[in-house]
Amino acid sequence: MASSSTHVRRYHVFPSFHGPDVRRTFLSHLQHHFASKAITVFKDQEIKRGQMIGPELKQAIRESRVSIVVLSKKYASSSWCLDELVEILKCREACGKIVMTIFYEIDPSHVRKQIGDFGRAFRETCFSKTKKVRLKWSKALTDVANIAGEHSLRWEDEAKMIEKIAADVSNKLNATPSKDFDGMVGMEAHLRKVNAYLRLECDEVKMIGIQGPAGIGKTTIARALFNQLSANFQLKCFIENLKGSYGSDVIDDYGSKLCLQNQLLSKILNQKDMRIHHLGAIKEWLQDQRVFIVLDDVDDLEQLDTLAKEPSWFGLGSRIVVTTKDRKILKAHWVNDIYHVGYPSEEEALEILCLSAFQKSSPWDGFEELAKKITNLCGSLPLGLRVVGSSLRGESRHEWERQLSKLETSLDRKIEDVLRVGYDKLSMNDQSLFLYIAFFFNNEAVDHVTTMLADSNLDFRNGLKTLADKSLVHISTIGWIQMHRLLQQLGRQVVHEQSNDPGKRLFLVEAKEIRDVLEKETGTGSVVGISFDMSKISEFSISGRAFEGMRNLRFLRIYGRYFSKDVTLGISEDMEYLPRLKLLHWDSYPRKRLPPTFRPECLIELRMQFSKLEKLWGGIQPLPNLKMINLGYSKMLKEIPNLSKATNLEALTLTSCTSLVELPSSIWNLHKLKKLRMSDCKKLRVIPIKINLASFDEVDKSSCSQFRSSPGVSMNIKYLDVGNTKMEEVHPSIVERLPRLEWLRLGGRNVKRITHVPESVRHLDLSNSGIESIPDCVTGLPQLESLFVYKCRQLVSLQGLPPSLKYIDASNCGSLERVCFSFNDLIRHLMFRNCFNLDEGARRVILQQRGYNNVWLPGRQVPAEFTHKAKGNSIIIPVVLDRAGNFSAFSGFKACLVLPPTKKYALLVITCRIRSKAGVIITELKWNSVNYFQYQTTHLFICGGKLVRETPKVDATAREIMFEFSCRDNHKILECGVRILSEEEESSSGNKVGYFETGGSSTDHYTDGEEGYEPKAVQVSQYENINNTCCWSWFKKLWSGEEDDDKEEAEKTSIMILR
């Protein structure tokens, strides 16, 4: 499940446009860029247009986070467009909706004043309209023309304009601050002082400095500040480690200055392949923009002159923050507002050390004086305190005293000495591991690095634990290795000292050094790893034998030019030699194939995205170690080699390999293959049928336009998703081939009938399909536990369901009228959200379900069977206690809440606290809505449970208890009702099995307490498709008992984005 820190909306973007002007040209390209950034766009192709916009479009506008108005020459010729525009601006005024404008081949003044061709089209549309309508439309056009936007006539390159628009939208959508810096010692005080210098209330451009010694926390403070404030700026960027990127020895070079400006503009405008040609580019692009920029670790005045020479380069209200060790640089640049990061107080420094050494804020007994002395010797430097503290964690007093003696002679208040305290204590193997991570495996998964270093004679698992214990690396909650940048610098300094000749060092990461080594072919057998960021250098070419001297090279990573038309690293002839690599990661590889002499038997990971490869190699190669192949977006790839020897292959990614026609039959002999991704392989026609893979657990054939039949998959597969393809039914043979299938997703608009489902299926998703009733093959499934028929718009009847069911989700089934199933205590969740056509009998069947199940359905009032009712979220009811002042062991209750509509998608988490009159909590219960959902009208939520889980003593004089309900994120509760179950009801609720069948007219939409309920006010059919896969995956995790950690998921996602 995605992070729950914010509610989910159905769409990211709602576009308003005149179709004939832009749909097949500009808009299609823009939507392609949106798709590449995972931005969901409302699409109106299937909406029947009339004289007025319908509720579906209005709902979509309200549900979208950003509305984009594309104003073209004939936009005003459509009354539909003009009504859309009025609705968009209403949302902007009412709830702060983000509205962006694009003036496509039209002057904004023509829109504002309704003149020229645009005005003539507008007047024709207004003919026969009332004066009120004409004025409403005219005002909307004037207002929208006053919203600053992109003017296509000002752009020479429309593609770049589209990229900028997509980047701007992405930035607006990614403005959610995190809590990464909460609880850091002294951070709150730092931020308060820095904010005082920024004076955000002023419109002037301000530049401030954050100055202090290395390791004091300048970067951490700047990141926390950026995290806190960046959402307030449309354009923002954090340029880190300027010293590490461009040293002072080359900053006077004109090309280096261009690189610096290019780096800033590429990042702030989110244009990866942007190129500039003069040093006035920053002013040219940003002088009218309100920006927030952090320049981190500046160590040369020329860097400031290059990136932020004067305030006039930036728009009013801009803020520039510079971190540096050198106060003179700031003064020379006329930066007068400087926040000096002082050392923490003795108490704060001791707390930092103790948190690392003792994992508490104070020392252990007997260590007080030692801790204070080490704090002083570290000079209260936060990074030094953490490193030294962790190196002493769990050590004896004797070891503390020994380290104290060492620190007294070697600290010398220099950061390198502080860092080396932790490094020098490592064994030789652990030091080697430290260097591997510093150079090559920072921000990598632990399991991945374990495999990569399997034959390196390093005790990786124990070594990694040692590094983590000493705070030289951090292992995230999802198992990723993270090393502080300054510690990486220490490792690089250690390797740099190995030789003055880069070709004789263990690792190479500096782009210019790598270029020189490859161009001059000076690499030697000492080199084990190369990590080459091609974005940091200009074009150059190497020979086919550039790697010949590096016979021990095992890790080759060449990256940074995904979408550039210009290949930075060219090869003057066919590649003749590559070493026996474990990792071959070469983005935008420029040749048609790998060297014929290449021996891939050591390969563990092969990544060659966006390459010009037509094939990898010929024949059958030994590939015993290969685990992952990613050839995504290699649009010239025509052939996949025979992979029969890749016996450990786990993942094969061929996304958007648009020239690929067939897959080799050998892949079906790969018994460890788990994931096969073939989405958007438009020419793929041949997929082998012979299958028997025990490990197969993921098949992605989405957007494979040739795919219409049942997939060939392993008879051992347990999870299969072929939703939203052109497959129209399940072939009977699939039932025979999938005897172990437990999870099956078949939903999609092309699915009209289902005649065969394997009897082993326990969780079935038919969402978005065109079925009208539950197929016979489903009603007979003996083990079916969960059934999704979400948004089956033609579904009228839900009956004949298996008694084994525990979960039903029929939400957004707009035509559903009749419900028929047995009462049992197995059903945990009954989801009938936004089902507005349920007849009276159906509502009664759902509401009278026995047991402590959770029920969701539309409704405005608490039904009459709930004998105690109150407005709001709490109710006090009388209760009878026995003579000892105890509740009966059989005491139970059912509750009903009336919840208001939600403006956006929400995961409702409801808590019930039962209190005594004195306020003592007797018991606490929680329920949730299982997945994110948007409730169009008021809904009823019915739940229940035991009044007590044990038998507590309650004041014998008490005759009342309070039920207090609350909903996460302050979601309002309109009304609540409670019914205390009698002993007879309680004892029978889990044992009786009743049966109701409903039918007949759907004109009476009410039940007890629901007089006047009018469900047809909102139609479910007005909702466009939401990606049900996310809900499906989350439910799978929930059902299997796996923990769902939003923080871990977010952390993993952020790391993947950085990669």
Automatic annotation (TrEMBL):
<dbReference type="GO" id="GO:0008270">
    <property type="term" value="F:zinc ion binding"/>
</dbReference>
<keyword id="KW-0520">NAD</keyword>
<keyword id="KW-0479">Metal-binding</keyword>
<dbReference type="InterPro" id="IPR058192">
    <property type="entry name" value="WHD_ROQ1-like"/>
</dbReference>
<dbReference type="Pfam" id="PF23282">
    <property type="entry name" value="WHD_ROQ1"/>
</dbReference>
<dbReference type="GO" id="GO:0003677">
    <property type="term" value="F:DNA binding"/>
</dbReference>
<protein>
    <recommendedName>
        <fullName>ADP-ribosyl cyclase/cyclic ADP-ribose hydrolase</fullName>
        <ecNumber>3.2.2.6</ecNumber>
    </recommendedName>
</protein>
<dbReference type="InterPro" id="IPR000157">
    <property type="entry name" value="TIR_dom"/>
</dbReference>
<keyword id="KW-0433">Leucine-rich repeat</keyword>
<dbReference type="Pfam" id="PF01582">
    <property type="entry name" value="TIR"/>
</dbReference>
<feature type="domain" description="TIR">
    <location>
        <begin position="9"/>
        <end position="173"/>
    </location>
</feature>
<keyword id="KW-0611">Plant defense</keyword>
<dbReference type="InterPro" id="IPR002182">
    <property type="entry name" value="NB-ARC"/>
</dbReference>
<dbReference type="GO" id="GO:0006952">
    <property type="term" value="P:defense response"/>
</dbReference>
<dbReference type="InterPro" id="IPR001510">
    <property type="entry name" value="Znf_PARP"/>
</dbReference>
<keyword id="KW-0862">Zinc</keyword>
<dbReference type="Pfam" id="PF07725">
    <property type="entry name" value="LRR_3"/>
</dbReference>
<keyword id="KW-0677">Repeat</keyword>
<keyword id="KW-0378">Hydrolase</keyword>
<dbReference type="GO" id="GO:0061809">
    <property type="term" value="F:NAD+ nucleosidase activity, cyclic ADP-ribose generating"/>
</dbReference>
<dbReference type="GO" id="GO:0007165">
    <property type="term" value="P:signal transduction"/>
</dbReference>
<dbReference type="InterPro" id="IPR044974">
    <property type="entry name" value="Disease_R_plants"/>
</dbReference>
<dbReference type="Pfam" id="PF00931">
    <property type="entry name" value="NB-ARC"/>
</dbReference>
<dbReference type="GO" id="GO:0043531">
    <property type="term" value="F:ADP binding"/>
</dbReference>
<feature type="domain" description="PARP-type">
    <location>
        <begin position="90"/>
        <end position="167"/>
    </location>
</feature>
<dbReference type="InterPro" id="IPR011713">
    <property type="entry name" value="Leu-rich_rpt_3"/>
</dbReference>
